[in-house]
Amino acid sequence: MAQQLELKTTTVPSNSWPRDLLLLLLGVMILSCSAIFTRLSEVELTPLATIFDRFWIASMALALMNGLKGLKQISTADVEADLTGESKLAGDTPWVEGLLMLVLAIAIAARAGSWAWSLTQTSVANSNLLHNMTPIFATLGGWLFLGHTFDRRYLMGLLLAVSGVVAIGIQDFNVTDDSFIGDIAALMSSVFYAINFLIIEKLRRKLSTTAIMTGSCFWVSVILVPGIWMEGSGFIPESASVWAAVICLGLLSQVLGQGILAYVLSRMNSGHVSLFLLLEPVITALLAWMIFGERLSVENWLAFVVVLTGLYLANLSQGASGLESQG
C-alpha cells in the first residue's frame, strides 16, 4: 500500500524535498542543545521557571519580529509570507482554530511540565527513553485523526529507528516501584509532544509559522503564570550565564528550532517529522563523545546504525510518496 496523505492542498515540488530535509535536520540539531541550556539555567532556576522564561522570551522575540514585518494582527485574512517567500490568502479564522491554538498551548505546557517533573521522579535514562516514544503516538494519531496512511517501508523504518533508540538507552533503564510514576510522566510527555505535532500540522493548513509560534508561545506563558505564582520561586536569572542559557532556550530552541519544525509540518506529515527527533539522543551521545570524551560501546555504534537505517527507510517512503501538503 503506497503512502498517501489525503490533504486537500497543493503538491510540494519534488526539488524542495532535499531542502526540507536539511531544514528538518537543522531543527533537530538545534533542539539537541536544549538539554544543555536547560541544565545551565537550572543552576539558579526551577524547571517551571526555566520553561516560563523560555516561552516569554520567545513571545517577546516573535512579537518584535511581527512588528518589524509590519503585521498589525495575526489572521488568516492577511496575505502571509512564509519562509519560502510564498504567500497564501485564507478566509476568516474560525473559532475552532482559536480553540486549537489554546489546546496546542496546553499540550506544549503539559509536555514540558511532565518531562521536567519526570526527571525528579525517575532516572534520566528512563525519562529520555520514554520521552522518545513520540513518533509512535504521532504516527498513530495521524492515522486516526488526520487520515494519514503509511506504507510498509515507512513502518519498518519507524520500527528500526525506535528499536535503535531503545538499544541506546536500555542499558541504563531501571524498572522499580519508586520510578513508576516518573516513568508514566515521561511517557505522557511523549504523548503530549505527539499532540503538539498533530495540532501544528492541522493549523499549518491555514496559518503561517509565525502566527502559530506567536500564539502558542504567548498562551503557554499565560498558562504557566499561576504555577510560577504558586511555586513562589523567582523566575528572573541573577547571573549572566543563566540569562544566556534562558535566552538561548527562547531564541534558539523555541523560536528557531521549534519554528523550523512548525514550518516543515506544512510539507511533511507529523509522524515523519517526529521520527527525526530520534536523532536527538544520537547527536547528544556523539557530542558527549567528542567534547567530554565519554566512551561509546560497540553496542552504541550499532544502535546508531540502526537508527540511521530506520530514518533512511522512512525518508525513502516519504520522498517517493508524492506528498501533498499546504505550501
UniProtKB/TrEMBL annotation:
KW Kinase (keyword) present: no
Name of the protein in question: DMT family transporter
Coiled-coil annotated residue ranges, if any: none
A Pfam family this chain is assigned to: EamA
Transmembrane segments: 21-40, 98-117, 129-147, 154-173, 179-199, 211-230, 242-266, 273-292, 298-316
Claim: Transmembrane helix is one of the keywords in the record: yes
The entry's keywords: Membrane, Transmembrane, Transmembrane helix
Family: Belongs to the EamA transporter family.
InterPro entries documented for this protein: EamA_dom, EmrE-like
Domain EamA: 21-168, 181-315
SUPFAM superfamilies in the record: Multidrug resistance efflux transporter EmrE (SSF103481)
